[in-house]
Amino acid sequence: MILQLRLYALYAYDKRIVLPVSALFVAVFGGMMVMAVIIYQYEKNHEAQIFGACAILGSVDWLYLFWVPMMGLDFVLVLLAGYKSLQHYFQVPDKNWSGARLMRAFARDSILYFLCNFLVYLFSTLLGKFGPVEYYQLGAITITVVPPVSANRLLINMYNSVHTEEEEEIDIKRVHYDVELAPMSMGSSLEV
Protein backbone atom coordinates (compact mmCIF):
# COMPACT_ATOMS: atom_id res chain seq x y z
CA MET A 1 0.00 0.00 0.00
CA ILE A 2 2.89 2.38 0.75
CA LEU A 3 4.24 1.82 -2.73
CA GLN A 4 0.89 2.56 -4.29
CA LEU A 5 0.97 5.88 -2.46
CA ARG A 6 4.39 6.51 -4.00
CA LEU A 7 2.94 5.83 -7.44
CA TYR A 8 0.01 8.12 -6.70
CA ALA A 9 2.50 10.84 -5.71
CA LEU A 10 4.37 10.34 -8.99
CA TYR A 11 1.09 11.01 -10.79
CA ALA A 12 0.12 13.89 -8.43
CA TYR A 13 -2.88 11.90 -7.17
CA ASP A 14 -4.55 11.97 -10.58
CA LYS A 15 -7.92 10.20 -10.23
CA ARG A 16 -7.43 8.58 -13.64
CA ILE A 17 -4.58 6.61 -12.03
CA VAL A 18 -5.66 6.40 -8.38
CA LEU A 19 -9.09 4.84 -8.96
CA PRO A 20 -8.10 2.10 -11.45
CA VAL A 21 -4.96 1.15 -9.49
CA SER A 22 -6.94 1.05 -6.23
CA ALA A 23 -9.61 -1.11 -7.87
CA LEU A 24 -6.92 -3.39 -9.27
CA PHE A 25 -5.35 -3.69 -5.81
CA VAL A 26 -8.70 -4.63 -4.25
CA ALA A 27 -9.33 -7.18 -7.02
CA VAL A 28 -5.86 -8.71 -6.60
CA PHE A 29 -6.19 -8.85 -2.83
CA GLY A 30 -9.68 -10.36 -3.09
CA GLY A 31 -8.51 -12.95 -5.62
CA MET A 32 -5.59 -13.95 -3.45
CA MET A 33 -7.86 -14.25 -0.40
CA VAL A 34 -10.25 -16.53 -2.32
CA MET A 35 -7.33 -18.68 -3.46
CA ALA A 36 -5.97 -18.80 0.10
CA VAL A 37 -9.33 -19.98 1.48
CA ILE A 38 -9.62 -22.67 -1.22
CA ILE A 39 -6.06 -23.86 -0.55
CA TYR A 40 -6.69 -23.89 3.20
CA GLN A 41 -9.89 -25.91 2.81
CA TYR A 42 -8.17 -28.40 0.51
CA GLU A 43 -5.17 -28.85 2.80
CA LYS A 44 -7.39 -29.09 5.89
CA ASN A 45 -9.17 -32.05 4.29
CA HIS A 46 -5.86 -33.70 3.29
CA GLU A 47 -3.81 -33.57 6.47
CA ALA A 48 -2.64 -36.56 8.42
CA GLN A 49 -0.63 -37.28 11.52
CA ILE A 50 2.67 -39.00 11.00
CA PHE A 51 4.51 -39.96 14.21
CA GLY A 52 2.37 -37.44 16.12
CA ALA A 53 3.16 -34.53 13.83
CA CYS A 54 0.68 -32.94 11.45
CA ALA A 55 1.63 -33.39 7.81
CA ILE A 56 -0.08 -32.29 4.64
CA LEU A 57 -0.38 -35.09 2.14
CA GLY A 58 -0.71 -32.82 -0.85
CA SER A 59 -1.89 -29.49 -2.09
CA VAL A 60 -3.80 -28.16 -5.05
CA ASP A 61 -2.10 -28.46 -8.42
CA TRP A 62 -2.38 -24.74 -9.07
CA LEU A 63 -0.71 -23.56 -5.85
CA TYR A 64 2.10 -22.02 -7.90
CA LEU A 65 -0.43 -19.54 -9.33
CA PHE A 66 -0.99 -17.90 -5.94
CA TRP A 67 1.49 -15.06 -6.60
CA VAL A 68 0.47 -14.43 -10.22
CA PRO A 69 -2.12 -11.74 -9.34
CA MET A 70 0.42 -9.83 -7.25
CA MET A 71 2.97 -10.24 -10.02
CA GLY A 72 0.45 -8.77 -12.45
CA LEU A 73 -0.19 -5.80 -10.14
CA ASP A 74 3.52 -5.12 -9.78
CA PHE A 75 3.97 -5.36 -13.55
CA VAL A 76 1.28 -2.71 -14.05
CA LEU A 77 2.91 -0.54 -11.38
CA VAL A 78 6.34 -0.93 -13.05
CA LEU A 79 4.86 0.20 -16.36
CA LEU A 80 3.14 3.21 -14.78
CA ALA A 81 6.22 4.26 -12.80
CA GLY A 82 8.45 3.80 -15.86
CA TYR A 83 6.16 5.83 -18.08
CA LYS A 84 5.99 8.67 -15.57
CA SER A 85 9.73 8.73 -14.99
CA LEU A 86 10.42 8.92 -18.74
CA GLN A 87 7.79 11.60 -19.14
CA HIS A 88 9.29 13.56 -16.26
CA TYR A 89 12.82 13.20 -17.62
CA PHE A 90 11.87 14.64 -21.01
CA GLN A 91 9.70 17.46 -19.61
CA VAL A 92 12.05 18.97 -17.02
CA PRO A 93 14.61 21.26 -18.66
CA ASP A 94 16.80 21.75 -15.57
CA LYS A 95 17.85 18.28 -14.43
CA ASN A 96 19.78 19.68 -11.43
CA TRP A 97 16.81 21.39 -9.79
CA SER A 98 16.22 19.90 -6.32
CA GLY A 99 12.62 18.90 -7.13
CA ALA A 100 13.81 17.19 -10.30
CA ARG A 101 16.49 15.30 -8.36
CA LEU A 102 13.92 14.18 -5.81
CA MET A 103 11.48 13.04 -8.49
CA ARG A 104 14.28 11.24 -10.33
CA ALA A 105 15.22 9.33 -7.17
CA PHE A 106 11.53 8.73 -6.48
CA ALA A 107 10.90 7.30 -9.96
CA ARG A 108 14.15 5.31 -10.05
CA ASP A 109 13.49 3.65 -6.72
CA SER A 110 9.88 2.91 -7.60
CA ILE A 111 10.85 1.23 -10.85
CA LEU A 112 13.61 -0.79 -9.21
CA TYR A 113 11.34 -1.86 -6.35
CA PHE A 114 8.45 -2.92 -8.56
CA LEU A 115 10.75 -4.68 -11.00
CA CYS A 116 12.48 -6.49 -8.13
CA ASN A 117 9.13 -7.64 -6.72
CA PHE A 118 7.91 -8.72 -10.15
CA LEU A 119 11.02 -10.86 -10.63
CA VAL A 120 10.71 -12.38 -7.15
CA TYR A 121 7.07 -13.33 -7.80
CA LEU A 122 8.01 -14.68 -11.23
CA PHE A 123 10.83 -16.74 -9.68
CA SER A 124 8.46 -18.19 -7.09
CA THR A 125 5.82 -18.98 -9.70
CA LEU A 126 8.27 -20.68 -12.07
CA LEU A 127 9.87 -22.56 -9.19
CA GLY A 128 6.45 -23.75 -8.03
CA LYS A 129 5.50 -24.89 -11.53
CA PHE A 130 8.72 -26.42 -12.82
CA GLY A 131 10.88 -27.00 -9.76
CA PRO A 132 10.81 -29.89 -7.33
CA VAL A 133 8.27 -29.67 -4.50
CA GLU A 134 11.06 -29.36 -1.96
CA TYR A 135 12.10 -26.03 -3.48
CA TYR A 136 8.71 -24.36 -3.21
CA GLN A 137 9.67 -23.09 0.24
CA LEU A 138 12.64 -21.28 -1.32
CA GLY A 139 10.23 -19.18 -3.36
CA ALA A 140 8.00 -18.57 -0.35
CA ILE A 141 10.95 -17.45 1.77
CA THR A 142 12.19 -15.15 -0.98
CA ILE A 143 8.75 -13.55 -1.22
CA THR A 144 8.59 -12.93 2.52
CA VAL A 145 12.10 -11.41 2.68
CA VAL A 146 12.82 -9.42 -0.48
CA PRO A 147 9.77 -7.08 -0.73
CA PRO A 148 10.00 -5.77 2.86
CA VAL A 149 13.76 -5.30 2.61
CA SER A 150 13.47 -3.42 -0.66
CA ALA A 151 10.60 -1.31 0.74
CA ASN A 152 12.84 -0.32 3.64
CA ARG A 153 15.57 0.53 1.16
CA LEU A 154 13.11 2.81 -0.64
CA LEU A 155 12.38 4.65 2.59
CA ILE A 156 16.08 4.99 3.38
CA ASN A 157 16.80 6.35 -0.12
CA MET A 158 13.97 8.86 0.21
CA TYR A 159 15.24 9.96 3.62
CA ASN A 160 18.79 10.31 2.30
CA SER A 161 17.74 12.29 -0.77
CA VAL A 162 15.75 14.77 1.34
CA HIS A 163 18.45 15.18 3.97
CA THR A 164 21.21 15.51 1.39
CA GLU A 165 19.29 18.42 -0.15
CA GLU A 166 18.81 20.00 3.30
CA GLU A 167 22.55 19.73 4.03
CA GLU A 168 23.36 21.35 0.68
CA GLU A 169 20.96 24.21 1.45
CA ILE A 170 22.48 24.67 4.92
CA ASP A 171 25.99 24.77 3.42
CA ILE A 172 24.85 27.42 0.91
CA LYS A 173 23.29 29.49 3.72
CA ARG A 174 26.51 29.28 5.72
CA VAL A 175 28.50 30.61 2.81
CA HIS A 176 26.10 33.52 2.30
CA TYR A 177 25.57 34.45 5.93
CA ASP A 178 29.07 34.08 7.39
CA VAL A 179 30.28 37.60 8.10
CA GLU A 180 33.56 38.42 9.77
CA LEU A 181 33.52 41.26 12.23
CA ALA A 182 36.57 43.46 12.46
CA PRO A 183 38.21 43.53 15.88
CA MET A 184 37.36 46.66 17.78
CA SER A 185 39.21 48.08 20.73
CA MET A 186 37.30 49.32 23.76
CA GLY A 187 38.78 52.78 23.54
CA SER A 188 37.70 53.50 19.98
CA SER A 189 34.64 55.47 19.22
CA LEU A 190 31.75 54.54 16.99
CA GLU A 191 30.99 58.15 16.14
CA VAL A 192 31.04 59.19 12.53
Structural summary, described in words:
With 192 residues, the chain is mainly α. It has one domain (2-171). The chain is built from five helices and two strands, in the order ααββααα. The protein has helices at residues 2-10, 15-45, 68-91, 98-130, 136-177, and strands spanning 47-50, 53-56. It has a two-stranded antiparallel ribbon. A hairpin with a 2-residue loop joins β1 and β2. α4 (98-130) packs antiparallel against α5. It starts with a helix and ends in a 15-residue tail after the last helix. Residues 175-179 have low confidence and may be disordered.
Ordered list of secondary-structure elements with their pairings:
Elements: H1 2-10, H2 15-45, E1 47-50, E2 53-56, H3 68-91, H4 98-130, H5 136-177
Antiparallel strand pairs: 1-2
Helix pairs in contact: 1-4, 2-3, 3-4, 4-5
The largest sheet has its strands arranged as 1-2
Overall domain count = 1
Helix content: over 70%
Instruction: Classify the secondary structure makeup into a structural class.
Output: mainly alpha
Strand content: under 5%
Average pLDDT reading = 77
Q: What is the rounded Rg?
A: 27 Å
Give the N-terminus to C-terminus distance in angstroms: 68 Å
- The count of helical stretches stands at 5
Largest sheet: 2 strands, antiparallel
Series of secondary-structure elements, N-terminal to C-terminal: HHEEHHH
Oligomeric description of these chains = single chain
Low-confidence stretches: 175-179
Categorize the overall geometry: elongated
Total number of beta strands = 2
